[in-house]
Amino acid sequence: RGRGRGRGRGDRYNQAIRENQSYAYRSKASIYEHLSTLPKFNIIDIGANISKKDFPDTKDVITRAVSAGVKPIILTGTTLNNSEQAIQLSKCYPGTLYATVGIHPHNAKSCDQYTIEKLKQLAQNPEVISLGECGLDFDRNFSSPEDQEKWFIQQLLLARELKMPLFLHERAAHKKFVEIM
After folding, report:
1. Distance separating alpha carbons of residues 91 and 85, to the nearest angstrom
2. Closest by alpha carbon to 161, among 107, 104, 120, 133?
3. pLDDT-derived band of residue 6, with 50, 70 and 90 as boundaries?
4. What pairs with residue 43 in β-bridges?
5. What is the DSSP letter of 88?
6. Is 131 helix (H, G, I), strand (E, B) or coil?
7. Phi/psi class of residue 48: alpha, beta or left (left: φ > 0; alpha: ψ in -120 to 50)?
């Protein structure tokens, strides 16, 4: 009782609401009014998953994002096919879209040595700024932990060889993730 955020009588936020202080907003309109007075800032989307299936009008999605101040947008590669699509889309929007190439832990079961060689080739494209999304996800285990570990290590080695940054994913696998890193 009284220990969680927003539950205790001494909680500053609740106190501000009771006293109607300026930072305790009572409506969305007052929040937006306050935000409109703040200086503008750039937003970078570091993990965009834009596909024709999810967004039939990709051009419109990108245009709206850029007009809202989201730039650059980094398209996430999670499979070979998805990585190739990210590169192709990035080529249509130079300076706005970039790509990562990698195999997400959910897709590790489909990985083999050809996959790693293909990622190496794809990484040579100027639109590619990172390897990944790669890592471990022991929460859902769409791929076995053994497959995830094996192909995570292979992608780490490839990143080291190519001197590229990594876009990492970890869920319910912290101990093993840190051990491998």
Report:
1. 10
2. 120
3. very low
4. 70
5. H
6. strand
7. beta
User: What are the pLDDT digits (tens) for 153-168?
Assistant: 999 999 999 999 999 9
Q: Are 80 and 107 in contact (CB under 8 A)?
A: no
pTM for this one?
0.76
Angle between helices 80-92 and 113-122 (to 10 degrees): 10
Q: Which of 37, 36, 31, 98 shows the shortest CA–CA distance to 70?
A: 98
Amino acid at 65: A
DSSP for 21-68, written as a single string = -TTS-SSHHHHHHHHHTSPP--EEEEEE---TTT-S-HHHHHHHHHHT
Both tokens assigned to 162: 């190519």
b/e per residue 129-147 (b: at least 16 CB within 10 A): bbbbbbbbbbeeeebeeeb
What CA–CA distance (Å, rounded) separates 62 from 44? Answer: 13
